[in-house]
Amino acid sequence: MKTFKLKRVQIVEGDSIRQFDLIDGLIINKEDDHQTWILEAFLDHKEIDYFQRIQQSRENIEVLAVISSEKNDPASLYAHVHDVRPIGERISVLFIGHIRNQRNDYAEKLLASILENDNLSGEELLIQFKKQMRERPRIVKK
Fold first, then answer.
1. In sequence order, which residues have a C-beta less than 8 Å from that of residue 48 and are 6 or more positions away?
2. pLDDT at 101
3. Alpha-carbon span 99 to 61, nearest angstrom
4. Helix (H, G, I), strand (E, B) or coil at 135
5. Which of 3, 48, 62, 90 has its CA at 20 to 30 Å from residue 20's CA atom?
């Protein structure tokens, strides 16, 4: 097993991404035959109802996890909420899941989306592409 620092965690909700104020967290690659990953996110207590609802639904959700450095691209995992525990004024949320796609073709999809939707070229295209690569918006297929 390998353990890494979790720097950011987000949940994909349809065409949008829900942000959380991560207090602390870690992500573990179990390195098993199923390519299982375990995430623990330490969050503000105000999020407890949200995560308890997800846990009770027993559905897999798409989790975006930035690992080790804020500069890294988020890893996309399909995961379920395994446990939600209050710890004082905070909560611990434990996810178990699997990496969705090892190949990162986000840049290609983003560029295609900008070209299709924004009708930009030259320097304007480059500026918009760099801006959106930093912001990492969700790309919606038409």
1. 84, 86, 91
2. 60
3. 12
4. helix
5. 3
